[in-house]
Amino acid sequence: MPVQARNTRQKDAIRSAFMKADRPLSHDEALTLAQAEVDGLSLATVYRNVTTLLEEKWLTAVEVPGDTTRYELAGKAHHHHFQCNECGKLFELEGCGMQAGPKLPQGFRSTGHEFFVYGFCDACT
Fold first, then answer.
1. What is the distance in angstroms between the CA of the first residue and the CA of the last residue of the chain?
2. Which residues bind Fe cation (predicted)?
3. Could you tell me if residue 92 is inside a domain?
4. C-alpha angle 10/13/18, rounded to 5°?
5. 96 assigned ligand-binding residue
6. Core-most of 17, 52, 66, 93, by most CB within 10 Å?
7. pLDDT digit string, tens, across residues 97-109
C-alpha cells in the first residue's frame, strides 16, 4: 500500500489554487495562484506536488490538443473544455451534448470521446 505524502503549507496552497480557480490549471497558473499564499514557492515544488496529487487521485490530467497538459480536481462528472484563443486559459463546460455519439461503422465500438471548444473568454472579448 503506497504511503500518502504528508501535507505541507506548499501543498495546501497548491490545492487551494485549484479549488479557488475552479478550472483546469497549468503548472505555471497553479504557481502564480499558490504564490499568493506561500511566498517564494518554486515551479519545481509545484511540479512535484502536482505529481503527488495525481498519484493520490486528487487531481486528474486534461490533455489539451497542441498545448500543455492542464490539471483539474478529480472525480467530476463527464464534461468537456473551452480554451480561449487569446489568453489560453482552459475552462470547464458543464455536461456533454454528445451522449449519443457519432455514427460509427458497423462492428465498431466507442470507448470514449474528446471534445474541445475554442473561442474567446469573457475577459478577452
1. 49
2. 78, 113
3. no
4. 130
5. no
6. 17
7. 666 667 888 888 8
The response to whether 113 counts as a known ligand-binding position is yes
27-34 vs 43-55: helix crossing angle, rounded to 10: 110
DSSP 9: H
Question: DSSP character for 74?
Answer: S
- Asked, for residue 17, whether it belongs to a domain, the answer is yes
Q: Give me the number of domains the chain comprises.
A: 1
Owning domain of residue 40: 9-73
> Which grid coordinates are listed for 77?
462528472
Q: What is the pLDDT of residue 100?
A: 62
CATH value at residue 67: 1.10.10.10
Whole-angstrom Cα distance, residue 50 to residue 73? 11
Cell numbers at residue 98, please?
454528445
Q: Is 121 annotated as a binding residue?
A: yes
Residue 91 lies in a domain: no
Is 54 among the domain residues?
yes
Write out residues in the chain with pLDDT < 50, as ranges. Answer: 1-3
Please state the pTM of the whole predicted model.
Answer: 0.83
- Amino acid (1-letter code) at residue 40: G
Nearest to 59 by CA among 42, 44, 46: 46
